[in-house]
Amino acid sequence: MPAPADFEAFREIAEQVNNWGRWGDDDEIGTLNLITPEGVREAAATVRSGRRLSLALPLQQQGVQSGLIPGRTNPLHTMTALNWEMFGPGAVATSDDTVTMGLQAATHWDGLGHVSHGNRIYNNRPADAALTAHEGALRSGIEKPGPVLGRGVLLDVARARGVGRLPPGHVVTPDDLDAAQELARTRVRAGDIVLVRTGQIQLYLGGDREAYAFPSPGLSLHTPAWFHARDVAAVADDTLTFEVFPPEIDGLFLPVHALDLVEMGMMQGQNWNLEALAADCAEDGRYAFLLSAPPEPFTGGVGAPVVPVAVK
Amino acid sequence: MPAPADFEAFREIAEQVNNWGRWGDDDEIGTLNLITPEGVREAAATVRSGRRLSLALPLQQQGVQSGLIPGRTNPLHTMTALNWEMFGPGAVATSDDTVTMGLQAATHWDGLGHVSHGNRIYNNRPADAALTAHEGALRSGIEKPGPVLGRGVLLDVARARGVGRLPPGHVVTPDDLDAAQELARTRVRAGDIVLVRTGQIQLYLGGDREAYAFPSPGLSLHTPAWFHARDVAAVADDTLTFEVFPPEIDGLFLPVHALDLVEMGMMQGQNWNLEALAADCAEDGRYAFLLSAPPEPFTGGVGAPVVPVAVK
Amino acid sequence: MPAPADFEAFREIAEQVNNWGRWGDDDEIGTLNLITPEGVREAAATVRSGRRLSLALPLQQQGVQSGLIPGRTNPLHTMTALNWEMFGPGAVATSDDTVTMGLQAATHWDGLGHVSHGNRIYNNRPADAALTAHEGALRSGIEKPGPVLGRGVLLDVARARGVGRLPPGHVVTPDDLDAAQELARTRVRAGDIVLVRTGQIQLYLGGDREAYAFPSPGLSLHTPAWFHARDVAAVADDTLTFEVFPPEIDGLFLPVHALDLVEMGMMQGQNWNLEALAADCAEDGRYAFLLSAPPEPFTGGVGAPVVPVAVK
Amino acid sequence: MPAPADFEAFREIAEQVNNWGRWGDDDEIGTLNLITPEGVREAAATVRSGRRLSLALPLQQQGVQSGLIPGRTNPLHTMTALNWEMFGPGAVATSDDTVTMGLQAATHWDGLGHVSHGNRIYNNRPADAALTAHEGALRSGIEKPGPVLGRGVLLDVARARGVGRLPPGHVVTPDDLDAAQELARTRVRAGDIVLVRTGQIQLYLGGDREAYAFPSPGLSLHTPAWFHARDVAAVADDTLTFEVFPPEIDGLFLPVHALDLVEMGMMQGQNWNLEALAADCAEDGRYAFLLSAPPEPFTGGVGAPVVPVAVK
Question: If we measure between CA atoms, which residue out of D117, D42, B159, D63 comes closest to residue C85?
């Protein structure tokens, strides 16, 4: 199996977008450093209607995982107490519950420790030392980003291309992003959190999780350079694989993951439900908003559920 | 064991604060209805510095649960893949993880299904029908509230009372809330999310989770009327039990839970880390802020983890 | 939906096989009472070759559960430590692991609390009192049977009927059991643990768990009377559903479960891999053996994994 | 931290007891090879009374784990269905349950992959290749032993030394084993499964799991040679740590684990409840019996729960 670095196209982009050392050798959060207090103030200033939209899928056994990704289980929710009169008959009764789930099972962020190549994770750290079975990610764990919140911009590629949903296998290119930015009538800028809509999640919402999973439209390996040029803080989309799958180049698997997470140090969001947000943006013509999307801070996690909230 | 309704004090307050039917017989979210678009706009307008603060504890095995609450387990985080070259040697390697945890184990919201009394949950629904072993809460599940976000107000009772931390067993009274509101130089109003600081969580942060758990300062059974009078949307504090424990009245367990969750239909937050926020508010004298605190939407959940983010 | 008791066929058999009160009102283990020390001695005396055979499927993510039975998850096995030098570099390294699984996910026993009808479990106990969300089965929990061990008899129905595997939907009748007993050249007697082979598990072993699950050959609602007449202690087979599925009588679901578990108080085993045992028995012509099959004693469990071992 | 091989005492014993290559380079089960069909027949022949005794602790939240061993959680048992009328009102109702637990949380076998030293597990395999995060133990996984069953011998050291329970920290020496063998009036021979009783588990049974855990009596690093000389197949005892803890030699942690599991390839059992068995043996004077103790076959597991059954 060739390594990513065996592909010249990959090597060139990797060199171009690499952020190792940019925020110091101790940095563990990468492009999230690009969110500034000023950017947060500007994000708050985008709020006009006071409408709030959640971009999270419900967490349930009938989630998006179809068994294709080994070990990534949908939430198994069970009750540990049910109207339990802990203090005696007649007293206040309590109900409690517990869950087992893959941290990347539903609407989630990929942490920077989620992938490595050439035994390296972000900031040139050896993957075999940074990632441990006992404690998970010792560096760039998902507890490190903290309160991810800033200006969100929706790039509705499907709408910009005049379709309700991009076809399976559609490669979302920089041209697609340009077209969607045009539609959005705003310019993506430093510290923005960019949401890319393909419409693919309609398949899951319609009941077909196998079709949702694969084949999938998704981001091209040329998009990291687009994001890098604009100093984007993080990117999320509405697919299971984030990048197009099957991949663009034969034998080169997960190049976008490697470029975003390892080279740039930029978190990726997957399985975000952008449908209601897209409808709202289409209606009022405003594609920028305040976005709050802090990952659940699992110590050592390489990914985490998130409930993204857009405020317009 | 006497029922809550056997206590006259409880009955009187329950009658006073009851919200059943107020938002219609079908309502499942109670006082969250009090958050309005206008309130959200005002919340966004409080943002001045652009500082963001997370109020969530890290999710880890060494969490706040000490075993006292049966079945409420701290997060058990394990790796299902570790630098796994799924696509062959040399290819991009992935790491994945999974978790088992009590939904109310760490920084969380109590959903309206968490407690019942007299076989009733919020809005006069029979508890034994609304709560099921197989599907959890059929009504008022924690997936219903959606994007909880609005104006947050910190009532720093410890600071208002001139101490770093309220003593174990201290009953937080309406007078205490008045004093903290005075300190905050804002008036709590309809739709606010109120955060009450006791300082108790310092014990956990200092390494003593047994002392943190019990005995604990916490809210008095007279505080629901205070919140009700101001049409507060939700309340959270920095303790394990939320209300004072052991209880104020001998034999009357969890009266505040019963009044807030069942009678008013008002969510409660527990184990919120308010220390950094309190320091920030003390420094700039501003105790109101934008607060985003959507619960993880577990279908049928009676509680859920949350990563509250305050923006100032 | 008609109740089982609405069917005359069911009512008649239920009356015939009912064991409530037979071993006293406090009894929780039913027909396991029929295993006697003398029977155990006779079982030990069947051992001649010293060959040991495990009848358990491996416990793994790719187990027999295909998602059809809600919440019954295949084992999710993860490492909590991996070559971890807990005591410092160079010291002995330890590895540890954890699992989440449905107790009835793989080779298992149904406990007597697994099903109820007319709100009754075995020995006339109200199901809604005996089974609780917080503590599971307060009566007839799977920790009660203890060391299930006695004489096992293989009834190889497939072989007796001259096929390698019974066709999907084949109803295993008392005649089938008679034919298999004939083949076995032994008479089933009081205290025996009977293993009924259909061959269905070959489908799972061959990689097709959907076909394994459904439609399935299995026991007829007339077999409980056959087992009752012989005072069998327990019965297991090599299918997911134990009884034939879809059911024999339209609208009468799980009648065998109701008769065996509720009326007789007889545990049922499912997903037992009888292939190697059947080959061994066919070769030496001996179908009786020592069988050890204690359920994992989960307190309050309504089922449990088991590693049945036959010794010949 | 010195490595085990830095201690001369360890090196000498390791050389003496090493079994690498003894059953071929492909062997994964070590001393279990010593159980022969003839031995099994002899074990069956020890059965006289037909009494059966389970040596397993109940699996429950209040188990032996006190939190000292990171990630090794007591069983968390929850219901996924509770009297659920899956097929409609009135139909047969089912209850189902699920569990999350450390595989070595309760009465269990250590698999041969549980520890390594010098990056080696049993049979000279590199630990870092044999043990993986994604699939667990690729070699010597706990699914490999299969139907562990043979002659069991109880060595009741506590009784032989005239006490009900050995004191905390008592080092069980070869002399102790000799004395217990004398008491047992049988000679330990090739293929036997030896159970060593200290009485320590009385502390857990009496409600004090902290005292049970530590300090603990247990086996000396000189006992592996005793077992090796007799070609014992496996050894279990009634403590949490198996070997004496704190250790005999300052700075040499888990030497018995390293000698038994890595050098000899001999499984170890822990948390076995030997109390009832000991009473029975003392009463009839017979310390040898048929023992069935197959580990739950978790694919890739480094340990597994077991329900040991002794038949006398």
Answer: D117
